[in-house]
Amino acid sequence: KAGVTQTPRYLIKTRGQQVTLSCSPISGHRSVSWYQQTPGQGLQFLFEYFSETQRNKGNFPGRFSGRQFSNSRSEMNVSTLELGDSALYLCASSLRTQKGEKLFFGSGTQLSVL
Amino acid sequence: DAKTTQPPSMDCAEGRAANLPCNHSTISGNEYVYWYRQIHSQGPQYIIHGLKNNETNEMASLIITEDRKSSTLILPHATLRDTAVYYCILDTLSNYKLTFGKGTLLTVNP
Asked: In terms of DSSP bridges, do strands B104-109 and B9-13 run parallel, antiparallel, or are they unpaired?
């Protein structure tokens, strides 16, 4: 099975621009979540989607948004970029079983805001 | 804030067992103990999880104390490729998110 695919791998933007990141989950996985990783704050939860519905959202400003499509693919958007948005953005898909839930992460999109 | 406490760093010799401790003294009865690791510049990788009993898989073993207030991840024969940040995380499966702490940087030395 193919793993979680995130595109693009690297992205350079300037302040004030917007950006859209894409995530394709593992086939059959219906839950997709997004995390931001920075050297200062570590890994922080952004939001989680299941069957096109957002089930949980982290403590980020409204400039950060996401959505999930009927095929479980997900996108996240950051508008009016700030320098502090420079980070590695990670997507994970998961499948819940009776024994628990495992998250499978993609390699991430490294966003640099200049 | 993460509900677990881990040492910031540990060293291990290649071929020896690596024992990574995690304290979770305020763990709730419905919280699972999860371990993930992150090799530099990659996304985190699931290792193992458990609720009450000790668990073993092809990657590692998880030992949870009887009172569930602490656990140990054991990599039986560490290799250089096991050098990574290891995260111990508690999850109830009801919040649909993981709360990562700072983890333990394990360095496996030749």
From this structure: parallel
List the structure tokens of B10.
């540990």
Is residue B40 predicted with pLDDT exceeding 80? yes
φ/ψ (deg, to 5) at A20: -125, 125
Q: What is the pLDDT of residues B96-106, one digit of tens each?
A: 888 999 999 99
Task: Quick: pLDDT tens for B66-84.
Answer: 999 999 999 999 999 999 9
Interface of A with B in 16-55 (CB under 8 A): 31, 33, 35, 42-45, 48, 50, 55
As a whole number of angstroms, the distance between CA A29 and CA A72 comes to: 7
Task: Give the CA angle between residues B8, B9, B14 to the nearest 5°.
Answer: 155
Among A60, A74, A103, the strongest candidate for a mutation testing the B interface, having the largest count of B CBs within 10 A, is A103
Instruction: Tell me the pLDDT of chain A averaged across its residues.
Output: 95
Report how far apart the first and last C-alpha atoms of chain A are (Å, whole number): 37
